[in-house]
Amino acid sequence: MATNTLSQPRNTFGALGQLVPGLMLCMVIAAAASFVSGQYGGPKFLYALLIGMAFHFLADNGKCLPGIEVAAKKLVRIGVALLGVRIAVSDIHAIGTVGVFALAGAVGLTIGFSLLLARVLRLPPMLGLLSGGATGICGISAAMAISATLPQSRDNEHFTLLTAIGVAAFSTAAMVLYPLVVSATGLATAEAGLFLGGAIHDVAQVVGAGFMISTDVGDAATLAKMFRVAMLMPVVVVLMVLFHQDRVAAGGAGAAKQPLVPGFLMVFVALVIVNSLGWLPSEVITLSSDLSKWCLVISIAALGVKTSFEKLAELGWQPIALLLGNALFIAGYMLSVVFLVRLWSAA
């Protein structure tokens, strides 16, 4: 009896020890990506993806594989859960009724458009869902969160990685080009904030584009973007319900025991509520937000390690056309909304 009791901690430490090599690999890649991003600019998520793909030869290594799998599938849930500290209900009130409906429409219509375009391009619906959600909500974070609701397969991992690479590239291009659109169309501060916050994919690029113009535009754009981030919660809940049986079928008996609404999503909702009530000190919000970013960067690095350029190349040109179409659609939609509101106000 005593022998069994003593062996349990050893087995636990042994299982944890098997995760160390793969986790350390992904953490070093994430640190390198963050350093390059901090020193030379550019999205650290994209750097983590590309550096991770350079280490694909370790994906089948028996010592690294367990840690890589945990980083790719478990850390993303922690990162998404902690995103809740960045959202408060008061943000929704500050946007106004028109802004709320416009931004909610951007999310729903972009996902619908992406599914339709994927069908036209003869691409899998899962890729259309991932790319539409990532473009419409909050970039790579949304892609990772939506991926967690889908049946886990190698194809879906490839689609997630492809979406992440494309979204990072198009979001960076949007950060550079959309301020020129604001200048060319003569948008006012509130209009520019709504357009940038509603059309650019990732939070960091929204902040960069907004503050390129002015502090007021940067604040307005960030506020609009955070509402789109808040839309992640209902979208993920809906997808969890829709794909529950598919996840059970793909995961076997173990998946059948999982709750319909997972723990990471309940933590996300709880943090939104607590933050809305003002119970979280600014230090806790900052720390949790930073931890969320690190978890997502490490997770995307792991996803990069698991996928090769050769497999991505096999997907062809259609996914690029899909991502470009989504980016143009949401930008055109937000510009149309801005000009319609301007005409309505002038009437």
From TrEMBL:
Q: Does the keyword Lipid metabolism apply?
A: no
The membrane-topology field of this record reads: Multi-pass membrane protein
Keyword Nucleus in annotation: no
Task: Show the Pfam families listed in the entry.
Answer: Cons_hypoth698
Its transmembrane ranges are 12-33, 101-120, 127-147, 159-181, 193-214, 226-244, 260-279, 321-344
Q: Where in the cell is it found?
A: Cell membrane
Q: Which UniProt keywords apply?
A: Cell membrane, Membrane, Transmembrane, Transmembrane helix
- Mainly localized where? membrane
Q: Which family does it belong to?
A: Belongs to the UPF0324 family.
- This one is known as Sulfate exporter family transporter
